[in-house]
Predict the structure.
Amino acid sequence: MITLRKDKKDFWHIYDGKTRVGKIYIKTIDGTPHINMFINKGQQGKGIGRIALKKACKQSRYKRIYATTRKGNVASTKAAKAAGFKEVPSARQRQLVWVRR
């Protein structure tokens, strides 16, 4: 079971059972919240990112959160879309937005 343990404001450690498998955090840039996530190499490809993104967004205080990925980073884009992010037009990078419903 994937759980998030809050460390600081807008920063969580990601656990799969008792094993720490990554981290996720939200930082604001010019007043706009952006989410960043890192999954340990051996734990990637298991759907952990999708679950962590969804949980962190719901646990945050923000109504709208942006995620930016390189256009070639198919796994991150797939995880973000599965977590409820929608793609928004951007010339240089792939940008997605999550909106609280």
